[in-house]
Amino acid sequence: MNVHQAAPYASLALYIDGRFVEEREGETVCNPANGKALGHLPHATEQDLDLALAAAARAFETWRWTSPLERSHILRRVAELIRVRSDEIARHLTLDQGKPLTEAKNEVVAAADHAEWHAEECRRIYGRVIPPRMASVRQFVIRQPVGVCAAFTPWNFPFNQALRKMSAALTSGCTLIIKPAEGAPSSVVALARLFDEAGLPPGCLNVVWGVPAKVSDYLIRSPIVRKVSFTGSVPVGKQLASLAGAHMKRMTMELGGHSPVVVCDDADLDLAVPLLARLKALNAGQVCMAPSRFYVQDKVFDEFTERFTKAFSSRVVGDGLDEVTTMGPLAHSRRVSAMAEFAEDALQCGATLATGGAALARPGNFFPPTVLLNAPDRSRVMREEPFGPLAPVTPFKTLEEAVSRANSLPYGLASYVFTRSLKNSHYASSRLEAGMVSINHFGIALPETPLGGVKDSGIGSEGGTETFDAYTTTKFITEDAA
Predict the structure, then answer these.
(1) Active site residues
(2) Strand 137-145 and strand 472-480: pairing?
(3) If you compute the radius of gyration of the chain from its CA atoms, what whole number of angstroms results?
(4) SS (H, E, C) 34-94
(5) Tens digit of pLDDT for each residue in 23-64?
(6) Cα(455)–Cα(264) distance, integer angstroms
(7) Which of 74, 139, 279, 430 is the most exposed place for a label (fewest CB within 10 A)?
(8) At a CB cut-off of 8 Å and minimum separation 6, what does 133 contact?
């Protein structure tokens, strides 16, 4: 199809102190659906990083005292602009990230809700008055912005993840230097342009690109940065958390998971099967909250696996800009190899292949929906997050067994339960070791709800009123008027 040439690809740039910078060495951004070059992404030099740090520090001294009403106004304007430009942003996002255009559009439009929610909620970052022990004493608590923040965002939801961190930091009164993933840059550059157009003062937001390890190390070690936020893999998150901790810096870490799905024998399969097939195929399975370990009770195991395999394998795999596509390519060629290795290991451990299992013989990073039945708990796919369109399905006898197996890994981000029983729901939601439990639907990652994990899946939350906790300091003030 010639749809790729419908409009030029986005102009990529650094954004430092209110200025867009394109004239730098960097890397080529390619389309994961066909491997063709899309554009040139400039990398920041150390001098660029120093300019960004200085700009953020300078802007903070004004932005921290800016009225929440003014911060709110700018975020609302950004939300308006997102909706106006959503078609163009979504198309470029599909080109460099791969997801179907409908999914890209949903990501962009949903992000506008995050901007609006933060715009409203930042007007209610309240302190409190503490009753004194003496009549002449007044004592109270206020919350103040922590300072300059450094944020690092992933390639799987580049627009949404970047806006989440931008909104949380800026509405708290902080300034921000963000280094998004180089593989899907267009939508974050678009965000910088929207904030610039909305009237955000220079220096409040800075966008830099470069070699991830070098940029993150340079920014986190800087004494100017007082808060670190990272969304990505567990190993990288641990490295950044260690570095931030060594410098006593606040941090929010939203790391990977291996989300268990518990399907009880009383579950509504007419509800569970199509929902789980859609969630598993979303973004080709490259979602940290994707259902990735399926525990199905004995009585409904055969029926569930038959129906789920049919629904999941019916996804149309192709270029995200093709209208018929319902699952796009993986973002990187190395992810294709990883999927094949996961599947081969599961089969060697005794699993049965129900569908898929091998890379598609076509240009691009395509791997089909794959279902592995009876994969033992020792197999890699049951121990490590596949981060792709692989669904291992295994039976269980009792709910206690399923919860115990679900909790056996060091991850604890999202979890899903399908049951008609209030008793089962209460038991599972109370005992599953996860930051988020969704029962009989997908109800997480909304602007007004906290998103975060436990154990190796992270520290802190972004979203909900909890989002402001890591971006503000608590100051206790007491005075005696006597």
Answers:
(1) 254, 288
(2) antiparallel
(3) 23
(4) CCCEEEEEECCCHHHHHHHHHHHHHHHHHHCCCCHHHHHHHHHHHHHHHHHHHHHHHHHHH
(5) 999 999 999 999 999 999 999 999 999 999 999 999 999 999
(6) 25
(7) 430
(8) none
- Rounded Cα distance between 93 and 194, Å, is 15
How far apart are alpha carbons 316 and 332 in whole angstroms? 19
- CATH code for residues 3-255+457-476: 3.40.605.10
pLDDT of res. 7: 64
Tokens of 24: 């730098």
pLDDT digits (tens, 9 = 90+) for 377-412: 999 999 999 999 999 999 999 999 999 999 999 999
Closest CA to 408 of 444, 434, 429: 434
**Phi, psi dihedral angles at 4 (to 5 degrees):** -65, -25
- Long-range CB contact pairs, 422-425, < 8 A, 24+: 424/264, 424/266, 424/399
Q: Could you tell me which of 430, 164, 90, 107 has the C-alpha nearest to residue 417?
A: 430
Reading the block at residue 31, the tokens are 């389309």
148-152 and 225-231: which strand pairing? parallel
pLDDT (tens digit, 9 = 90+) per residue, 89-107? 999 999 999 999 999 999 9
Domain ranges of the chain: 3-255+457-476, 259-447
Does CATH number 1.10.10.10 belong to domain 259-447? no
Closest residue by Cα to residue 388 from 338, 341, 349, 347: 338
Give the H/E segment covering residue 348: helix 333-348
Kindly report the pTM of this predicted structure. 0.95
Residue 482 pLDDT class (50, 70, 90 cuts)? confident
CA–CA separation, 36 vs 328, rounded Å?
16
Distance CA 44, CA 174 (A): 22
SS3 content of the chain, % helix, strand, coil (to 5): 45, 20, 35
pLDDT at 290 over 90: yes
